[in-house]
Amino acid sequence: MGVIGLGRFGALHARVLAQLPQVELVGICSRSEERVGEVAATCGEPRPYTDPAALLAAPDIDAVDIVTEVDRHTEIALAAMERGKHVFCEILVTPSPREMDALAQAARASDVVFMPGFLERFDVRRAGLRKKAVEGSLGRLVSLYGRRNIWRGILDEPRFELYPLILQPGIHTIDQLLWIAAEEVREVYARGRGIVDPARPDTWWAMLTFESGLLGVIEQSWFVPNRQLNWCDVRLEIVGTSGTAQIKEPGDATWIWTEETVEAPDTYLAPEVHGRISGALEAELAHFASCIAQGRAPLCTLQDAHEALAVGLAIVESAERGAPVSLGARS
Question: Among 64, 142, 145, 320, whose CB has the most other CB atoms within 10 angstroms?
Fold first, then answer.
């Protein structure tokens, strides 16, 4: 495998792939030679690249992990599939339905595994709650609630300027509700509000009505005051006729108090244990590798990403129009 994009998360991906027994990390790529060298030293010294095309041309690379800025995803993924390489692509895959269609067509034509990175599907807590919801342990589902309030400082990063903020990282919340409901959304009604920039909403509330009448509510804003405790305030709640389930982040699994700060370290998504990155990130990338080796479809598909994007864009449209937006039945 090869990794393209070596920001904080790309570097984590490289470390995880280097430690997986079924994977050989052959190459890593960043536009910065210095950054490639830094990351290579942490993951077994794979071949360094500064040009994605050169990495994709390597005959000993079977699959590529794309962790670049969102606006580079489609071009790199299409080039990879043209060479018959399997693709893992971080979310948001693309904010464009047209590009999503092109990716799906290329994946079918080249017969490769294409897996979007819905990381939270591999969190043991969320996967467990979803199983209970789908098997009926909570009774008939009544409502779903997903909250994702983010540290204000992240809003200023250039990578978030290219698309509505509800699409990233809000696409994770959208996917969680769709995954748990296991049915289609029929209507979206949303409101957005721009506090930092009135022309760019940074606060969103949306209500989803699913085909059975199940209601889902999404809350997202960008005003967690600082990073001393945690960079986000996340909630997931499932209400059924026979039970209720909740997840909260930061949770109370681990707290560290010092004279300078209070911390709630990540213990589920990508914690480091004895020098090894574990948790949902390791499970996600191991799943991708296993799907390639076994020739089977991944848990997260481009169709899932397409459906989450459709709901996200409907949220944007509803907020702009001030009216509900209907979604057609899946073709």
Answer: 64
